Amino acid sequence: MESFLAAAIFALGLCFGSFLNVCIYRLPRGKSVVTPRSACPHCGDPIPLYHNLPVLSWLILRGKCRSCKQPISPRYLVIEVLTGLLFLGCYGHFGLTLAMLKCTVLGYLLLGLVFTDAETKLLPDAMTLPGLALGIGFSLLVPVNDLASRIMPGLVSPAMRMSGEISWRWWSLADSLLGAAVGASFLYGVAAIYLRARGVEGMGFGDVKLMALIGSFLGTKLTVLTIFAASLSGSLFGLSTVLAVWMKRTRRNRARSASSRASSPISPKHARRRAWQSARLALRYYEMPFGVFLGSMALLAFLFGNRLLHWYWRGL
Ligand SMILES: [Zn+2]
User: In sequence order, what DSSP letters do the residues of 84-106 get, joined into one string?
Assistant: First the structure.
């Protein structure tokens, strides 16, 4: 029975993943996700319902369109499987509870946003704003249990507390709203500083709305943790990109100077410096999709953040 339920939840996840693929392709292009029916992006051939099965269709067609034989991105398969695993993972972590539903919805939204950001560098309002509303709504069903829930009940009169006039839902709602406000204003501040310092827009307003969504689900504490973890992993990723470009250029320059040694010798030091300059230039023009890091770290923070913070405070 247990394993049957798990299999059913996984299959449900695959179907939702299939729909998420449609959202990732259409929403940044401003298209409707309801009509028209799915079609091949290369030849426009409509995809019949029996070829719309998640995972199976992709495998049967071997990742190619049935009429024009153009390759279909493996991203479709990856999203479907990841969504299936997300559904299954939330069930394993929370059991069949409202908390499971909340985590599944959060993960589903983040999965869509992370892949949309990675592909198009856009975070569509059609995903972030309904997500923010869902996060606030869920705070009335599943307690956020954050700063406001700890502090605010102490501020009301004991008589009111005793009479049970104020339900936990209000504190939870306050936690959700506070988390959204803190997340959004933090990112807004960073974006404004970045714009002033470098004269180019490093972070879009989409990241601000994404952070409001994350804050509404996670509350303030885990939101701050998310921003910290995303900055750290984003910086490490940026640094390794620069190093990879630098090493590649150095190797190429060395090969080139070896082949043309007779005509114009370049000193190794000079070659290294030139490689470093081009690596820095590559980074300047490379726009990092910061939403990818924010989104993935938010899901990790939601699942393991409290345990991590608890362990950390105890260790001090
Ligand atoms: Zn086609």
Answer: HHHHHHHHHHH-SSHHHHHHHHH
